Amino acid sequence: MRAMIIDDSRAMRSILRRIVTGLDFETTEAEHGQAALDQMNAGVVPDVCLVDWNMPVMDGYTFITQVRANPEWRDVTLMMVTTESEQRQIVRALAAGAHEYVIKPFTADAIEEKLELLGLLGADREVPA
Amino acid sequence: MTDPSAFASVSALVRRETSMVYDEGKEYLVEARLTPLANAKGLGLEEYVARLAFDAEERRKVIDALTINETSWFRDHTPYQAFTEAMLPALLEERSTTRRLRVWSAACSSGQEAYSIAMLLDQHLPGGWEYEIVCTDISTQMLERVRAGRYSQVEVNRGLPATSLVRYFTRVGREWEIADRLRERITVKHLNLAAPFPMLGTFDVIWLRNVLIYFDATTKADILRRMLPMLSPDGYLLLGSSETTLDLPADLAASWQRDQIGRVPAYRRASAMTLSRTGA
Questions:
Q1: Is A103 within 8 Å of B157 when comparing Cβ atoms?
Q2: DSSP 3-state percent helix, strand, coil across chain A (nearest 5)
Q3: CATH number of the domain within which B262 lies
């Protein structure tokens, strides 16, 4: 599985990279939505994007609408990871095509559980007793 | 906790009052949970532990703090999937005359399990059906939290689908409050699993997940024996993924029949036929 981490904060990208690398994802990074789109247009299409909302050049919301507008990228899972915690903003992101939403601050478990919800961690992590 | 005798005395206290076992190796947990309580009294950890011998109020706080409450929404995912996809359709058929379901969240902690179940029932129960979820816990502090139905930003990140967050919660300041229509279905009661159960009626599904591991073998068997009549004859008992009835005394083990439901084992009351087949 490949994850693209899209956040203008290098520290946040590094935190997320450590978490998802630990879950066996390969990662690529972009510091704003446009840089992420450029990579995808060049053929680097991840299984999941972890997307910040507030970024320079192109924000996460616009990025999501752009990805959803391209049918070739319909299998890309989009997860917002952002300090934006207004209820209407969450609704807006989901309506635009985000599959999940994590509010900063978060724990590593939160990222793992959301990826599991999205079916991105492989089947049966729980082994029946 | 640096002083082993302080840990031993806390461990003995918890065991005495709840039958929960805190083995060596859990010192870090005891220290992490008790340090804020000691600080609140302006005491060092060891002084605080010494005070517990004669301070009942602080003892109550320690029990509350040490009652495990580490939880997320839809924890482990598969039991909820099995509940929705297999148990619920069967129960809808079996209860089609009463149109009423009763669920017990038997160590409800801060309520994520109970409210996760409530969300599923809200989505999957046909119109005209009623449900009640009884939440019990030994920690009065946790029961207050369930009653309040308010969760922090960090808590709502844990395993709760974003669609459910916006559908069932309202943001209030820095917290998120569960919808009244779910909270109204929850009944909260103080209960020590290790002591005789009060009258609670019978349940269609009992969730007893990730709590038996904290009890010794005798108490565990005793709990599962007293649980039997609490479950309706066609009901389901769900345990945690590392918990089982296999290590119970033979007669009791035979009273619980393990069925694979979806991807999880569920435990059911063995019928007379099953009992004779297994020779019990």
A1: yes
A2: 40, 20, 40
A3: 3.40.50.150
User: The domain spanning residue A44 has which CATH number?
Assistant: 3.40.50.2300
The arithmetic mean of pLDDT across residues B47-76, rounded, is 84
- Strand B169-172 and strand B175-178: the pairing is antiparallel
Tell me the three state secondary structure of residue B172: strand
Residue B178 pairs in a beta bridge with B169
Q: Does B241 touch chain A (CB under 8 A)?
A: yes
> Which domain covers residue A94, as residue numbers?
2-107
Determine, yes or no, domain membership for A95: yes
- Domain membership of residue B72 (yes or no) is no
CA distance A1 to chain B (A): 20
The domain in which residue B182 lies consists of 78-278
Report field, pTM of the whole predicted structure over 0.90: no
Query: Which pLDDT does position B252 carry in this prediction?
Result: 92
Label residues B114-129 b or e (16+ Cβ within 10 Å = b): bbbbbbbbbeebeeeb
| Contact between chains at B159 and A114 (C-beta distance less than 8 A) | yes
What ipTM does this complex have?
0.86
Q: Does B224 touch chain A (CB under 8 A)?
A: no
- Examine the domain organization and report whether B51 and B144 are in the same domain: no
Q: Do the domain assignments include residue B113?
A: yes
Asked if the structure places residue A123 within a domain, the reply is no
Residues B148-180: tens digit of each pLDDT: 999 988 789 889 999 999 999 999 988 899 999
CB-nearest to A94 from B166, B241, B264 is B166
Average pLDDT over residues B193-219: 92
Residues 155-184 of B with CB under 8 A from A: 156-159, 161-163, 165-166, 170-171
pLDDT at B278 over 60: no
